[in-house]
Amino acid sequence: MSNFFCSDYTKHVGEDVIGSATDYQTYILVECPQPWIGDVFKSKWVPHNLQILVNEISLAKLPIRFLLIANDTTHKADSTTLLIYQKQEGLSHGYRQHEFKLSHIEQVAAVVKKWLWGQRPESEIATNITRDILVCTHGSYDKCCARYGNPFYFHANTAIANMNLENIRIWKSSHFGGHRFAPTAIDLPEGRYYGRLEQDSFLSILQKTGDIQALKQVYRGWGILPAPLQVLERDLMLSHGWSWFNYRVAGKILEQSLDNNTILGELTFAPSTDSLYTYQAKLIKDITKTINIKSSCNANQTSVSVKYAVSNLWLVTNNVLTMSK
Questions:
Q1: What DSSP string describes 244-290?
Q2: What is the CA radius of gyration of the chain?
Q3: Cis peptide leading into residue 35 (ω within 30°)
Q4: Is the predicted pLDDT of residue 276 greater than 50, yes or no?
Q5: pLDDT (average), residues 277-290
Q6: Distance CA 296, CA 288 (A)
Q7: Phi, psi of 83 (to 5 degrees)
């Protein structure tokens, strides 16, 4: 087992990365020095009050994801960055960013509680940052994230610095799922997930240029959509090109069979303020891509990774269905 790397294995068996983004209402990102242990919120620098809050929210099963983040200056910084990304309602580009500068990590729990109660903490700051890219380097959770996440973070950080992209930050992050696709990343505020990243695909995503079809190999899906709809969004993205990233989008599942093998999904998008398109699609379980895999390096048994395919697609215009595929 010691020589088993889940990321190598899923690449070898050809698991498609799509449909593996997780859908959260809120991301709460807490800057915290490393090292981090496997149960990350029990790590050395995480204060007790934050551990309690994370545990309470987990027990309440709220759609909130807490992550620890760090960069090359975290261990010597004289303040703690707290980032809250909140999903926008309706048609959207993804999430809304809120940034807080705190003098100590002990203050995080109180600020988060205040924010969750609908109050606006005074410590929120204006920022010129337009993107926060998280790369999972959480090797104590899964060794693939150390093996592939760390070198990827290093090269990506260098690339951003060399290109003088001062409004983009890159962070090392604790586990956010999909380590079998390491190196894996979330691009916020959009909330898009990527996996099996290489420097070429990363530069393409950074600049939103190059061959859009290359994203088929690395695009895990958009975290604002339910997993089965992510394959439909990818198909539309690949056909619309990079301009798709400027569209506001919303999606929902309308019906699903009891065995989840067939799903009726709907995706609405607005390329501009005065145009709106709605597609409906039948999504079926793709037998050719649904496989048994070991989803992590220390998994003792395999689990089924279900993939969907778009079997037909209708453009819904003024509630008139016209067959387009």
A1: GGGSEEEEEEEEE-TTSSEEEEEEEEEEETTEEEEEEEEEEE-TTT-
A2: 20
A3: yes
A4: yes
A5: 91
A6: 22
A7: -120, 130
